[in-house]
Design a protein that fits this description.
Blueprint lengths: L1 E5 L4 H17 L3 E5 L14 H25 L14 H9 E2 L3 H12 L8 H10 L3 E2 L6 H10 L7 E4 L2 E4 L4 H10 L4
Parallel strand pairs: 1-2
Antiparallel strand pairs: 1-5, 3-4, 5-6
Helix pairs in contact: 1-4, 1-7
């Protein structure tokens, strides 16, 4: 099994979605989708001066955004980068309450957020997605803070992050290593 920690507002998570689903299908393993709210990265530790620190932060952020747009373009995804600023906590809480294989729900929720620019925090939208995917939702309250504290205790600090057994893989760049691990485990 692959445990995948995601945030719907994260473009990196959206870009990792299809490769992870393809990996899971190829290796005949399930994916357990877990919520993890991404946060704006703190400024790097001040070096020579505040202007150098600010410049470093700006260059790093722009480089990450450029790379994300590049990979989105390669995949033919017309995305609005401002969607990364939309809080998706209600949708993540909903995800945590789903029963069954939520892969189709995750795929459709990402598409609704990034491509259709739908408010995936709207309970009517979430109910429709859930019904369309043939899933049900537990009625108990989901404590997202508690789930994230447990994830942090496992070593998480950002999403996407994946686990195969006790092996942690941070970011989509590690999907080839995950494939190798699953292949070595005879999961193909």
């Amino acid at each position: 099994m692959i445990t995948a920690y995601i945030d719907f507002k994260s473009l990196d998570c959206f870009l990792a979605l299809d490769p992870i689903l393809r990996l899971a299908e190829d290796c005949r393993v399930n994916v357990s989708w877990q919520p993890f709210r991404t946060k704006e990265r703190a400024l790097p530790t001040q070096v020579a001066s505040e202007s150098v620190t600010q410049s470093h932060h700006h260059v790093r952020t722009e480089s990450e955004r450029h790379l994300q747009r590049h990979y989105a373009d390669i995949r033919g995804l017309n995305i609005d980068p401002s969607r990364a600023q939309v809080d998706t906590s209600a949708a993540l809480r909903w995800l945590a309450g789903l029963e069954g294989d939520s892969s189709l729900f995750v795929k459709r929720a990402f598409s609704a957020h990034w491509i259709d620019q739908t408010d995936i925090n709207d309970s009517a939208v979430l109910q429709e997605l859930t019904a369309d995917c043939g899933l049900s939702i537990r009625q108990e309250a989901i404590d997202l803070d508690s789930l994230e504290s447990q994830a942090v205790a496992r070593g998480l600090f950002d999403a996407p992050t994946f686990f195969i057994e006790e092996h942690m893989f941070m970011g989509r760049a590690h999907i080839p290593l995950m494939r190798q691990l699953l292949t070595d485990m005879d999961c193909h």
